């Protein structure tokens, strides 16, 4: 059983953010596992396109927002409530970056009051497999990483 703990991440390093355990990656990945020997030696060079996914996912809340949108479109208030611990301004910035990268679409409805929904695009949905793998890695190694961070303080 996973317990709740406070962790400190990214820009929120000045304050402790309550962390609610989320189960990511239930099910199996359909892709064939890649061995590191399958990658060219320049796979992560400065001009390599492989780095694109790392750059896109580098935001503190990016993966969380993508994962939360996996079941369909949501309004910003619904996203914020489901995620918990994210400020409105940070969520708005994350959604704008995801939209600029073509990972989510923003749908505005012409009604009063105005309504906006965000939904994953094909490329955004394609990142769910990678997030699932990261979730499994976290389940296996989170305690070790957190312990190493504590030793380094």
TrEMBL record:
The keyword Kinase does not apply. Residues 48-146 form the HTH hxlR-type domain. InterPro entries: HTH_HxlR, WH-like_DNA-bd_sf, WH_DNA-bd_sf. GO terms for molecular function: DNA binding. The keyword Chaperone does not apply. Keywords: DNA-binding, Transcription, Transcription regulation. This is Transcriptional regulator. It comes from Actinomadura litoris.
